[in-house]
């Protein structure tokens, strides 16, 4: 493949990347060929001439994730009790895995963002957030988690925490009925509050996301 930088029509490329991003974050199957083509498209967007379009790509990914999480929040807002806790954990489990795969797909963009931040810090340059929106220099995985925290954890925290505390009190007093599902959901929700803040800083997690996994019936090795 010729890796020489070239002009790129961002709108045309993003229409394909968006479809893949929406599938990955929802853990829907994609073809290996689609992954490979998207990986190349991301590279050429980042090195495009006459100027890079990496920031435009980053903002588009951010907008895509925001739309997705807002839709999830609307679907969860009317839920209560065990139904809310179970649905929240189900969606978080999918989103967490999808964020890891998306982080790997956009690894070249992540490297550019990291270099941009390091260059600014080495030159003692202040990077203003307001011109680029929130989270201007997070890698795509960290971005996905930051958006989940803002769009789901913070708005739903009072309902989730209240129900979790109630379940824990029941368990301690051995009142009512509870099951392994209750315990798993309690653990999953509490862990999600921690994971959104630190998971993508953990190299072992990123290593796990590079291992083989299955989308539908197809096996992928990243």
UniProtKB/TrEMBL annotation:
<dbReference type="GO" id="GO:0031625">
    <property type="term" value="F:ubiquitin protein ligase binding"/>
</dbReference>
<keyword id="KW-0833">Ubl conjugation pathway</keyword>
<comment type="similarity">
    <text>Belongs to the cullin family.</text>
</comment>
<dbReference type="GO" id="GO:0006511">
    <property type="term" value="P:ubiquitin-dependent protein catabolic process"/>
</dbReference>
<feature type="domain" description="Cullin N-terminal">
    <location>
        <begin position="14"/>
        <end position="198"/>
    </location>
</feature>
<dbReference type="InterPro" id="IPR001373">
    <property type="entry name" value="Cullin_N"/>
</dbReference>
<protein>
    <recommendedName>
        <fullName>Cullin N-terminal domain-containing protein</fullName>
    </recommendedName>
</protein>
<dbReference type="InterPro" id="IPR045093">
    <property type="entry name" value="Cullin"/>
</dbReference>
<dbReference type="InterPro" id="IPR016159">
    <property type="entry name" value="Cullin_repeat-like_dom_sf"/>
</dbReference>
<dbReference type="Pfam" id="PF00888">
    <property type="entry name" value="Cullin"/>
</dbReference>
